[in-house]
Design a protein that fits this description.
The structure is a single chain. The chain folds into 2 domains: 69 residues, no CATH class; 64 residues, Nucleic acid-binding proteins (OB fold (Dihydrolipoamide Acetyltransferase, E2P), Beta Barrel), CATH 2.40.50.140. The radius of gyration is 26 Å and the shape is rod-shaped. By secondary structure, it is an alpha+beta fold. 22% of the residues are buried. Strand 4 and strand 5 form a beta hairpin. It is 43% helix and 22% strand. Helix 1 packs antiparallel against helix 2 and helix 2 runs antiparallel to helix 3. It has 3 helices and 5 strands, in the order αααβββββ.
């Protein structure tokens, strides 16, 4: 069985995608897989190996650079403060009494929760928004 260069590029692309799925940490390997796919398409077009390598380098490098710049512009929130991970973040509740240490016991979703004030100034009673959840403690900020 004689494999063409295009087949080898598709194998490299599949290996990069499999490695990304196995690690699950970043998208950088997927971006390099795009470069390998571009090289495979170049091989299907019948262009030389040096052009295939150039396409893999340019497309893969550009995709990695784009992804890195995108990630640096959009810093990742910790799970405790990310509303896409923790559906309580962004919800509001009423605080009836604050303790002197900036904590309170509040009713939220039918249960008693510990709460801590993280806003500016002194804590006051009234409506507050959940900004993060640490264990069973709600971190609150005034509306």
């Amino acid at each position: 069985m004689d494999w063409s260069l295009a087949t080898w590029w598709w194998v490299v692309c599949g290996g990069l995608v499999a490695a990304e799925l196995a690690s699950g940490t970043t998208f950088y390997l997927l971006m390099l897989g795009l470069g390998a796919a571009a090289a495979a398409l170049t091989a299907h077009a019948g262009l030389s190996f040096s052009v295939q390598m150039l396409m893999a380098s340019v497309v893969g490098g550009a995709a990695v650079t784009w992804w890195h710049l995108r990630q640096s512009r959009h810093p990742r929130l910790p799970a405790s403060a990310n509303p896409n991970v923790n559906l309580d973040v962004g919800q509001s509740l009423d605080v009836k009494l604050w303790r002197a240490d900036g904590t309170a016991e509040v009713k939220y979703r039918g249960a008693a929760w510990q709460a801590r004030f993280i806003g500016g100034g002194l804590p006051h009673t009234g409506r507050h928004v959940i900004r993060a959840v640490e264990g069973s403690c709600l971190l609150l900020e005034a509306v």
